[in-house]
């Protein structure tokens, strides 16, 4: 994932790969949970009740779903961001070092979307702070209320300039996204209590019917969601938590959900977990609520309806299955009908079985929610053993999270190779064919289940293109999609990888070199390498050369006497520079295909050329980051001296 500032990347610099990988996952949950404990403890909530918020937030559904991609490495700092902001406001600080550092860590979660989540979180804290003021509609009050948050956010952004400078230019080729209303997320809120109602990853998804997706599930625990909703109507509940819960929930039901995606609901999860922990603690101090009896009767009524529907479905299983198959046949594309038909039918059969009330996941979730709800009522009604009842609620919530994650997380043995995945038997031959070339996947039926688009890169295979929502310009053939060998060779593409389900490929000029039951590998006979030189007597003829050495950011090439131009089949960027062995800077430009072209001065001897990539503008943004860090250090030292002097005078 494109996460240049993510803290967990640093683990790979001094730990073995798998140790760093596992530590990154464990620390993600640890930081999120510890932050919730610190925040709720600072609000005067005892430990047994604090644990409910910690379990709910750290194991929220979006953290579980995206555990593999580490998309949420920034928002795990949410509790500590809010804790530091509240402390800064309480102390009436203008520059509060913890607030700035934790917001910066949130920004350094790695990508622009994570930065938007942090911005949304800080906005909610500010809105709650501003709303508490009696004269809130005054412009002076508004500016005074917002100044602390603006200063903290601005200085945190300066400390994270490397993240923004690395990612913002890549928005140049951002794919256009559909404009949706997001209203489909309203009925999908039922999954906040029962996450299996619309299907699981092992079945087809009913959510597709309403335009939603299983990735839209907002599950932090059924009991937690009920407690959070109760807290919304409690005037004593923390206003900041209410704003986080409601604002993020409302955003997910608007067109903004297209761009923030379901991951933005982690802000809602933070507010929900805070409200649940607070409400659980408040139950023992609150008069007996009449809501428990109503909730019990509502729950019994819903379960009776679910049981009746399950019995009816079981009685008419075959006719319903045939209708479901007919519906699928009428709504899938021709290619899906041809290549994925049995896959859809199998998952539709699983769906009917999984939706039954007696399915083990549903039955266990119902049991855990019922026991957790009963424990909440006992905590409210009885004054005996409050911590034991609170502990039972926490255990039930943790059990709900385990049941939910069982259908989303698959465990496997670590591969013997040094790669992230187990290396297939055919990979050794495949790698031998490709060498330093690049592969492009020919997938006319858009069947991403086959060797997912970015999959081969984990084995050290260069891909000519990949899947990214934010995609900058890159080296590509002019006849993209026509597969002309000469044009593709000039774009550095040496092989085509074709899905075997589409039949034996027939592309003129390409040679079949490897065949398995899953794919065909075609070789480009015109591919001669990635580095070429043009000498002084040649007009349009480039001869291949072999680089002396290369790394991800450096390429060293020795060119023969009389060389006029060096062509490098790598994607051009303003960050590339070229110098001779004597330190002379060489002109570097982009070709029509967006490759690199270096102009070489006349020389009767061999010339050593070093191409090196530096992130554009890094000198000035490193200077600004260093200046900001120095300013904060001086401010902290001065503040400490002022505090010491004040204590002595006091």
From TrEMBL:
Keyword DNA-binding part of the UniProt annotation: no
Protein name: YfhO family protein
Keywords: Membrane, Transmembrane, Transmembrane helix
Transmembrane parts of this sequence: 20-40, 47-65, 71-88, 100-128, 148-165, 177-197, 217-233, 240-260, 266-283, 295-313, 355-376, 388-411, 620-638
Origin species: Akkermansia muciniphila
This protein's record includes keyword Metal-binding: no
């Amino acid at each position: 994932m494109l996460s240049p500032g993510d803290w967990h990347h640093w683990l790979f610099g001094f730990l073995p790969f798998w140790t760093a990988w596992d530590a990154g996952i464990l620390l993600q949950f640890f930081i999120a949970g510890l932050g919730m404990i610190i925040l709720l403890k600072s609000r005067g909530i005892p430990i047994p009740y604090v644990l409910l918020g910690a379990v709910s937030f750290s194991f929220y559904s979006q953290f579980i779903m995206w555990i593999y991609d580490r998309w949420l490495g920034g928002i795990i700092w949410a509790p500590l961001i809010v804790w530091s902001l509240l402390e800064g406001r309480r102390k009436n600080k203008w520059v509060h070092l913890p607030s700035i550092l934790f917001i910066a860590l949130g920004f350094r979660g790695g990508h622009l979307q994570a930065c938007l989540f942090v911005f949304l979180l800080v906005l909610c804290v500010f809105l709650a702070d501003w709303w508490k003021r009696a004269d809130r509609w005054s412009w002076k009050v508004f500016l005074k209320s917002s100044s602390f948050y603006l200063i903290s956010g601005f200085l945190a952004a300066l400390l994270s300039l490397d993240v923004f400078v690395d990612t913002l230019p890549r928005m140049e080729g951002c794919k256009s996204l559909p404009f949706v209303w997001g209203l489909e997320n309203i009925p999908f809120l039922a999954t906040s209590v029962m996450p299996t109602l619309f299907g699981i990853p092992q079945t087809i998804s009913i959510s597709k019917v309403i335009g939603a997706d299983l990735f839209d599930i907002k599950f932090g625990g059924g009991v937690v969601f009920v407690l959070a909703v109760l807290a919304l109507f409690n005037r004593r509940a923390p206003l900041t938590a209410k704003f986080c819960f409601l604002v993020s929930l409302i955003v997910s039901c608007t067109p903004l959900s297209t761009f923030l995606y379901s991951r933005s609901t982690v802000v809602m999860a933070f507010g929900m977990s805070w409200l649940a922990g607070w409400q659980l603690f408040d139950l023992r101090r609150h008069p007996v609520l009449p809501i428990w009896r109503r909730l019990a009767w509502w729950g019994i009524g819903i379960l009776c309806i679910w049981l009746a529907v399950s019995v009816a479905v079981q009685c008419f299983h075959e006719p319903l299955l045939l209708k479901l198959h007919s519906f699928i046949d009428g709504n899938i594309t021709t290619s899906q009908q041809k290549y994925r038909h049995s896959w859809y039918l199998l998952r539709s059969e699983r769906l009917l079985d999984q939706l039954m009330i007696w399915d083990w996941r549903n039955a266990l979730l119902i049991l855990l929610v019922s026991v957790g709800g009963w424990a909440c009522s006992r905590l409210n009604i009885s004054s005996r053993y409050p911590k034991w009842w609170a502990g039972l609620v926490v255990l039930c919530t943790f059990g709900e999270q385990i049941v939910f994650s069982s259908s989303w997380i698959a465990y496997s043995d670590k591969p013997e190779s040094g790669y992230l995945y187990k290396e297939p038997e055919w990979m050794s031959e495949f790698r031998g064919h490709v060498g330093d070339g690049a592969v492009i996947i020919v997938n006319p039926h858009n069947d991403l289940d086959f060797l997912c688009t970015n999959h081969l890169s984990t084995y050290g295979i260069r891909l000519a293109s990949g899947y990214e929502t934010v995609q900058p310009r890159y080296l590509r053939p002019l006849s993209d999609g026509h597969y002309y060998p000469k044009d593709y060779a000039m774009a550095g593409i040496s092989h085509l990888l074709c899905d075997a389900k589409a039949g034996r490929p027939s592309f003129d000029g390409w040679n079949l070199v490897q065949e398995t039951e899953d794919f065909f590998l075609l070789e480009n006979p015109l591919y001669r390498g990635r580095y070429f030189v043009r000498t002084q007597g040649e007009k349009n003829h480039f001869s291949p050369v072999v680089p002396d050495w290369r790394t991800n950011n450096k390429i060293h090439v020795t060119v023969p006497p009389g060389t006029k131009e060096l062509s490098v089949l790598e994607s051009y960027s303003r960050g590339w520079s070229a110098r001779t062995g004597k330190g002379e800077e060489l002109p570097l430009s982009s070709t029509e295909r967006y490759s690199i072209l270096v102009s070489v001065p006349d020389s009767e001897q061999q010339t050593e050329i070093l191409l090196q990539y530096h992130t554009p503008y890094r000198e000035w943004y490193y200077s600004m980051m260093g200046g900001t860090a120095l300013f904060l250090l001086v401010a902290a030292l001065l503040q400490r001296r002022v505090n010491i002097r004040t204590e002595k005078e006091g």
